[in-house]
Design goal:
419 residues, alpha+beta, Butyryl-Coa Dehydrogenase, subunit A, domain 1, Butyryl-CoA Dehydrogenase, subunit A, domain 2, Butyryl-CoA Dehydrogenase, subunit A, domain 3, 3 domains, 51% helix, globular
């Protein structure tokens, strides 16, 4: 293994052919709803799934800007794949944030060998309810995991699953093997986009869990101001959306170059020479540039915060600032990707709507990704932060009096009357 850090040129050379191979099969997989088991195996074998693992554990040790640039390229090849691996990459980052070297050593060395981790955290019921229970099994001296999760994206493809559970008053994160007795994974995701992410149900029926599989205990109601995981997970979505805008531009150009007649013009009239088509493609290229640039800027902020944390001087305000930046980026990238995936159809007539081309997958996939996190609530959170100085989600964890005090203090700083 080389001791020199991997450059962006090294990474492009290493993965460009693989991304091309993934892109070539994306339409067939979409048309036939063929789950992406083979592409996931390619990514594991190539070392892509361990790129963020530090070198001392056997991974690639690349930076966050390098990682998100590659993830954008993967999203352009097939937007299902970044989302399939979103929980896996989040698991790596969460371990990097943690200070337990035993856990890092145990799990990151597994990831470096190609093992992947899915997630089972969300449920169909109220988002504040956690129905999966962990209880000690007196017969074995181990723990027993029971319950059900939905939206367990990527778990059908994974070797392990990170589960949000509870025992009485404590919230717990446990990791179990996806092929362990009592684990059932179902591909019952019925969304109209991101159809291959297997974002369906995972059930746990008396799954035995050893003590070392419990990786954290926490209170879900307690605010977390020392983590950038919310921003990280959002940036994965934004990189995927930026990839979709790149794919839209690519497919628009390919469609135009293959045509011999402009819509509505009889006879032979090449769209390549039509200034209106040029304008549409120019707009698509600009949107692709914008979304990619926003992701690059946000990933650089995450990298700076990661380095500040490692140096021991990251502050609460630093974490809040990166969350706000991610929320702002979310508003623009979603809007621009949906614009691009609709505008795409202006390069051609009815032939652009052919099922064989699957051009509609770009809008469907973008719309589903955009729906995973509440963009409108986050836009309001940004406004509330700037007006009243209340950090995102803090209003859900602070007593009313504390919220009022924070708001009054912010107004005082702005020179306003608080009477």
């Amino acid at each position: 293994m080389t001791t020199q850090p991997l450059t962006s040129a090294d990474l492009d050379a290493r993965f460009s052919e693989l991304f091309d191979r993934i892109a070539q099969g994306s339409i067939d997989r979409e048309q036939n709803r063929t789950l992406a088991h083979e592409p996931v195996q390619w990514l594991k074998a190539s070392g892509f799934t361990s790129l963020r693992v530090p070198r001392r554990y056997g991974g690639g040790g690349i930076t966050l800007p390098q990682f998100f640039a590659l993830l954008t390229q993967l999203g352009a090849a097939d937007s299902n794949l970044p989302q399939i691996l979103r929980a896996h990459f989040g698991f790596i980052e969460y371990r990097l944030e943690g200070r337990d070297e035993t856990l890092r050593e145990r799990w990151l060395t597994r990831v470096a060998k190609g093992e992947t981790v899915g997630a089972a955290t969300s449920e169909r019921s109220n988002s504040t309810h956690n129905s999966v229970a962990l209880a000690r099994d007196d017969a074995t001296g181990r723990f027993r995991l029971d319950g059900e999760k939905y939206y367990s994206t990527g778990t059908l493809y994974a070797d392990w699953v990170s589960v949000a559970a509870h025992d009485a008053d404590t919230d717990i994160n446990v990791i179990v093997a996806t092929h362990a007795p009592g684990v059932t994974r179902s591909d019952d995701w019925d969304g109209f986009g991101q159809r291959l992410t297997a974002s369906g149900t995972t059930r746990f029926d008396g799954v035995l869990v050893a003590e070392e599989q419990i990786v954290s205990r926490y209170k879900a109601s307690e605010p977390r101001r020392d983590s950038f995981m919310t921003a990280f997970f959002q940036t994965v979505h934004l990189a995927t959306l930026a990839g979709i805008t790149q794919a839209v531009q690519r497919d628009a150009v390919a469609f135009v170059q293959a045509r011999t007649r402009t819509f509505g013009v009889p006879g032979r009239s090449s769209p390549r020479d039509n200034p209106l088509v040029h304008r549409v493609v120019g707009r698509l290229a600009s949107l692709a540039y914008s979304t990619q640039s926003i992701v690059a800027s946000l990933s650089a902020s995450l990298q700076r915060l990661r380095e500040a944390r490692q140096a021991g001087h990251a502050t609460t305000d630093d974490y809040i600032a990166v969350d706000i930046e991610a929320y702002k980026a979310q508003q623009i990238v979603i809007e621009q990707t949906l614009e691009a995936s609709t505008l795409l159809f202006e390069v051609g007539g009815a032939s652009a709507t052919s099922e064989a081309r699957q051009l509609d997958r770009h809008w469907r996939n973008a719309r589903v990704i955009a729906s995973h996190n509440p963009a409108t609530q986050r836009e309001a959170a940004v406004g509330r932060y700037h007006v009243n100085g209340i950090a995102p989600d803090e209003r859900f964890s602070l007593p009313h009096e504390a919220q009022a005090a924070r708001t009054d203090a912010a107004r005082a700083d702005l020179g306003e009357s608080v009477q």
